[in-house]
User: Which sequence fits this backbone?
């Protein structure tokens, strides 16, 4: 009987084994860049031109020839003649002769004849009795205008050079990159308005169990409502996937096999929340093995909660048999399902986890050789965060509802004493 | 001139000031629970009934009267007669007499006459020559069946009590709670299939600047593409809002005022990416003050990048004037805009930031009295993560594209030496 052979692997080995078998490739689709946040690039992207495309001032001030300012100081200022203003959004056509300068605004184009910008705070207008920041007094300025430069500038100072942000032809994003808001900005700045991304993975979700009823139904004693479909559905959405709910299947091999085969054919990944008893788990193993090769890769992970997790692959697609226990199901989906979704989307490594460090308020027990996840509430303490374990049996969903995260006790540790700093994964 | 009066506040004071003025309340809408992930509860929710509603076994094994097992051990087992099987999903009607037990599966209902469950691993079938786990051998079992119990159980052992997950009437979620996948599970487990949430906030976004053109347009020298609208739009989406793009407005008071007033009337929050020069900032201040009361709350935050940020409120709605510099705009939106979106949605405190700790690979300079954010790449080091600052002027969007997060240098620190551990906000 399959139930007696538990091939229990440490989590890292289990994940590596799963990954090795995920060979299905999602198709690509093209999206307008502003719509592509939290999608994954399908191909590497290069800069079609340099950015910036022209030399830009980083300050309000005066475009100058740097040599004209050498040696300038408060006590011995350099005198320059400002011959005009460089308008925003237009080519800088003013030609400066030695001793001349041009009024420039932050982001404005620096003319070819200038090689630096003196910021306005280091200058003083000597003619015209202009008060305040010349940038706000623009309307009253008349050129030519005499200024004193109170500090020398070096060649290139306060000037963004062509290609300083990104040079033409450089790879700006690799394939498999999870697009963040700044990445959209990087693309649009270069005039790239569409991006090829992997299609969002569709995840089939089945619940099994003779005792399981839809959430809208009234339960009689002995029955429980299906929540795993929807907790996992929420996790699928958070990892960029689309949940396809396959409903509740009775504990019957042929019913489950038919439903699983049909759902897997329409989706990129299949998750079965497989009841809690050994017989149901065994049936799930047999059903998965009947779907195709290689089938079940491992049946058990050295974690708590969640040891009896079935990790499988069928024709390159991930298939998971999660424990019926809602806490285990969520934690195990997070360990394998979320990861598989990132891999399916083409990411070589998943995004970094949201973790915080917190001081444990009391001892927690654990077994060495097993990775433990303990729900905890976070609060502010005198020297950082405090993590207080949420008590309750590991199959109570409210232990997770009442928690802010999961304390991770690594494989090689037997418990953690109160007062120690622990890693808490926001969950 | 407004530009000369910079009311610069530390970030925490600035945030508190903004919050105080956010009195606009978003309307509520009702959603099916499975659709409500990452939405915010509008009202507190109480448990309509206890969970579980019946006593459930946490193990595969036998429902027993605990007293029948007292003193049982491997060398001196207790003998019990198993009179039947408790089916999943049905009321447990078997009445156990002293000395009797019933086969039960994980999650199954414990009959009134039993007060504990002995897990199957601590029993042995003495009659019938049944091999293996009786749960997988169900079809071959015949009752009555004689078993030996090898370990005593206490009253209540391996049994979930009624209301142990959550008692009837308990508050299960407060108002203003950001719904996570487990929260959906907690609601559905109680038969709550719809939830009242605040409507997603609509955020009007305007770009200003004579030099700014739409991203799809070809730039001539002096022009730059509008990226701030879309980086901020991405941030808005990530915080639960809906961006409404108002386009690019020329540097003209009346044009900007008309566009801002019209967009603010249709939305819950207004963000202007306000160009970089002092004159444009001054104009933005005047425009915001013309929109309504109280108007500009502060004009300058003690952070780098991003000092010249305009934080305002108009008729209870947040209004931000962000620097034109794309890096400052994103960091400042994250500090004020993201926060305002959470407050608008009714959250008393924003969700915890995603931060990691990493060892700094080289010295970084900073000024005391200012909170600095320095883009950094993360990599794996010998004792945890390493953070390597990304160099480049603070207005280069690719410093953020090439970064994994932002190193935060607190207000009271003047730089950080290489080798120290720093907080890196994933960004």
Assistant:
């Amino acid at each position: 009987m399959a139930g007696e052979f538990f091939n229990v692997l440490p989590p890292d080995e289990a994940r590596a084994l799963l990954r090795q078998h995920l060979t299905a490739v999602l198709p690509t689709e093209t999206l307008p860049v502003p719509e592509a946040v939290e999608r994954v690039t399908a191909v590497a992207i290069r800069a079609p031109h340099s950015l910036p495309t022209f030399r830009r001032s980083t300050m309000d001030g005066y475009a100058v020839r740097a040599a004209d300012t050498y040696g300038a100081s408060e006590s011995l200022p350099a005198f320059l003649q400002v011959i005009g203003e460089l308008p925003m959004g237009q080519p800088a056509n003013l030609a400066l002769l030695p001793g001349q300068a041009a009024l420039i605004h932050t982001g404005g184009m620096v003319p070819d004849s200038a090689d630096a910008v003196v910021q306005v705070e280091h200058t003083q207008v000597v003619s015209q009795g202009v008060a305040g920041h010349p940038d706000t007094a623009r309307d009253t300025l008349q050129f030519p205008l005499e200024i004193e430069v109170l500090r020398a500038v070096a060649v290139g100072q306060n000037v963004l050079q062509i290609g300083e942000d990104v040079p033409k032809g450089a790879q700006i994003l690799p394939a498999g990159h999870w697009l963040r808001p700044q990445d959209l900005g990087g693309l649009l700045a270069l005039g790239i308005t569409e991006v090829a991304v992997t299609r969002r993975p569709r995840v089939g979700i089945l619940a099994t169990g003779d005792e399981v009823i839809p959430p809208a139904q009234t339960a009689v004693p002995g029955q429980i409502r299906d929540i795993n479909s929807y907790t996992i559905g929420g996790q699928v959405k958070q990892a960029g996937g689309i949940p396809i709910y396959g409903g509740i299947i009775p504990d019957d091999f042929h019913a489950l096999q038919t439903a699983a085969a049909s759902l897997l054919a329409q989706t990129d990944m299949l998750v079965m929340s497989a009841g809690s008893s050994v017989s149901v788990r065994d049936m799930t193993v047999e059903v998965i093995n009947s779907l195709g090769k290689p089938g079940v890769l491992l049946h058990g992970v050295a974690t708590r909660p969640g040891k009896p997790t079935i990790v499988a692959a069928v024709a390159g697609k991930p298939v998971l048999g999660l424990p019926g226990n809602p806490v285990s199901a969520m934690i195990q989906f997070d360990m394998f399902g979320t990861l598989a979704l990132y891999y399916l989307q083409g990411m070589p490594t998943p995004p970094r986890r949201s973790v915080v460090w917190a001081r444990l308020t009391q001892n927690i027990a654990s077994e060495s050789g097993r990775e433990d996840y303990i729900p905890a509430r976070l609060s502010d303490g005198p020297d950082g965060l405090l993590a207080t374990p949420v008590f309750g049996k590991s199959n109570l969903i409210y232990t997770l509802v009442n928690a802010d995260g999961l304390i991770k006790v690594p494989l090689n540790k037997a418990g953690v004493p109160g007062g120690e700093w622990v890693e808490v994964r926001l969950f």
